[in-house]
Amino acid sequence: MRKYEENISDSSLWVTTTPTPLAETLPFYITEAGYFSAEHNYEISRSFHDSHLLLYTVSGTGIVMSDNEEISLPPKNCVIIDCRRPHRYFSASAKWEFIWLHFKGSAVSAMTAILYPSETRAVETDQPQNFKYWLESLLDKVKENDVLSSITLSTDVHHLFDVLIRSTMKNERANQKKEHITEIDNVIEYIRENYMENITVDDMVNRIHLSKYHFIRIFKRIMGITPYSYLTNYRINISKQKLRLTNKSVADIAADCGFMDTSNFIAQFKKHTGVKPVQYRRDFK
Known about the structure:
Blueprint: E1 13-16, E2 29-39, E3 43-46, E4 52-59, E5 62-66, E6 69-73, E7 77-82, E8 87-91, E9 95-104, H1 108-115, E10 123-124, H2 128-144, H3 147-175, H4 178-194, H5 201-205, H6 212-223, H7 227-245, H8 250-256, H9 262-273, H10 277-283
Antiparallel strand pairs: 1-2, 2-9, 3-8, 4-7, 4-9, 5-6, 5-8, 7-10
Helix pairs in contact: 1-3, 2-3
């Protein structure tokens, strides 16, 4: 007789927890987790579950259906899906051994957007033994559910995201042509040398051998923001230094930093810092 009614072996582990009010304020918190050894007819299908789910295959193969995508999950591969949308996952081999975590938190959506800028897909981990060890250690901490373990768990889940994002970015860079990365670096250097001029994204594209669409897509994936947003941020950072280290007027600083209109500079500065330039300068006097 099985310990559970989900076609998994008696050796499987299933841990549930009720998050404390403190845990629910953290960037990440786990609601349940497990280490399953599933049989060939194991299957889970849901229309909604209020969490995200991490699945990591130790041995065998699983299939995950999410967002109309079919994702194969062989050994050493991991995927994170949004269970608030219809999803299904099942064993595609005689035995499927996998570790899973249901988790929530204020930082989940932002981190999954970085991990998956377009479609959800499996990520092969660079250090599978370490990754498996980290996941197993999480299972022990979930049982404790005290203040220190809650904070540590939040940090650990963030670390898992970091590992997966690094693996994804490493693979993406390997698949991209080396000259494309060099061209992005050239554009960044161009921005830093010419931020005080009235430059546009078209000016950036004219310096490289990429289409405008392809350039913007690659730039955003590498830098996290669009080329023009990067330019604006760079100008704002330079203006901060000038506000603190010089006695120049706000209008002169705006012109020095490439803003063609003082009112636009003030609006952009407040948008990025929360205060107007004059207030920012006053705060550091």
